[in-house]
């Protein structure tokens, strides 16, 4: 991995964000970790305190514009040269069974916060970066970015936004010393799937978040997006040639079967939730 000096990781409390923090705290650098749950974030900071990195924990609810500004301020004070946007929120249910408030929460965290923070840190990153000291951005999207998903409609659409934004920015900055990667994992062993009541055969196929992070770090600067696992990559390719109407019927069937097993209020990903 390139020798980034200062890294911002949002949604570091659990899952992929926590794995990024553990992996990147092994070298002398500043590591800014954000999360909404103070207890979990302080616990992570304590675990990382024995590393050679300078750990800066920031309690922040990224739905809140004031908190986003504070995160951006701290990131720029520490001259961030790698931004890992991992914070995310998702609800699984029929579209109208998810409240409008919950839907706006998803949009605020998954789209608005990611965009706000990019606007805040990208100019400085671009100014400081050189051919020998490149900057980087990793947007944690999802395999869901490639498929409109019934019963997970807004979440999947928000991940499509992150994927498309990252690919576009990679094109815009192709002659600049900044690398962009859209990380699009399939199922990963995180607290989210523990709550999702997925079939055991799916749980058994879920990827280790530490491995996903190692692969993301490896491919930053080599690819514009990365899907972990050959099965996941083949699934995306095959789905791309299936007629849209048929593909959507297949996805709707499987998502509906899954939904039968989850609590009536639906489930939420908890990258930033307590």
What sequence of helices (H) and strands (E) makes up the elements?
A: EHEHEHEEHEHEHHHEHHE
Number of strands: 9
Please state the overall shape, judged from the principal axes of the Cα atoms.
Answer: globular
**Helical run tally:** 10
User: Residue-averaged pLDDT, rounded?
Assistant: 89
In terms of quaternary structure, what is this? Answer: single chain
Return the structural class. alpha/beta
Strand count, sense and closure of the main sheet?
Answer: 7 strands, parallel
Helix content: 40-55%
Measured between the Cα atoms of the first and last residue, the distance is: 31 Å
Which ranges are low-confidence, i.e. pLDDT below 50, for 5 or more consecutive residues?
A: 270-274
Fraction of residues in β-strands: 5-15%
Evaluate the radius of gyration.
18 Å
Task: Give the strand order, joined by hyphens, for the main sheet.
Answer: 3-2-1-4-6-7-8
